[in-house]
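Quick question: who can interpret this fold?

. . .
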Amino acid sequence: MTLLRDEHLAAAFDHAARSYDTLVAANPGYHAHLRRSARRLGLPRGGEGLRVLDLGCGTGASTAALAEVLPSAGITAVDASAGMLERAAAKTWPPNVTFTHAPAERLAEAGVTGPFDAVFAAYLFRNVTDPDAVLRTVRDLLTPGGRLAVHEYTLGGRRTDRAVWTLVCRGVVQPVATLLGDGDLYRHLWRSVVEFDTAGRFADRLRANGFDSVRRLPLPGWQTGITHTFTGRRPTTTETAR
C-alpha cells in the first residue's frame, strides 16, 4: 500500500478514534514514555507563565502527559483529525488546556499563533507530507530560545530495530486493527516508520531547519532503538546573527 497523507490520513484517524485509546493502552510504557519526553523539555516551575503547543495531540495522550508534567502551563492542543480531537476534548481537562482542529500545515488559518515557549509533537512528523516545512513553521512559532521536543518512532538504524518493529506490527498490532476495521491505518503505521528518517537523520533534519542544542534521547523497554525523544531550541536573536 502507499502511505496515507493529508485528508486520507485524517479520515483514517477519524475512523480509528473510537478504538485508539484501547490499542495504545496495550502498548507497555506508552503513557510513561510520553511523560518522559514531556519532562525532557526541561521547562521550569511546572510551566508557570508559559505557553506550550501540543502539535498532533490525537485523543489527548500527549496532552495528558504535558498537563501532568507542566500543570501550570497554558497548553494549546491541535490535531488534523476531527474524530481524534472530539475524543480528546470529551475528556476532563483543567481550564489551562484548550483544543483546536487544524492540520500542522495550516495552523495560522485556525488561529493558532505564537509565540510559544515550547512545542511538543508526538508521532507527528513521519505523517506529514513535508516535515521540513512543518519544522520551519514550528521554529517560527517559538519564542527565541524556545524549546521543541519530538517524540517519534524513528528506528536507530540496526537490523534488529526494524525486525522488532515489524514483528510487533505484523504479529500484534495489524491483526487486531484489521478486526476493528482499521487495517489500512496500521499498515500505514508500519510503513511510515520504516520509510521515515532514522534517528540520526531526523536529528540532522532538526539542525538543518534552524534548531540548535539538538539531542537524540532513547526511550526504555521494547521501544529502545525504535522510539526516541528529540529536543532542540530556536536560537536567540544574537545567536542567529552570528
The longest strand covers residues 142-153. The two ends are 46 Å apart (CA to CA). The chain is about 45% helix and 20% strand.
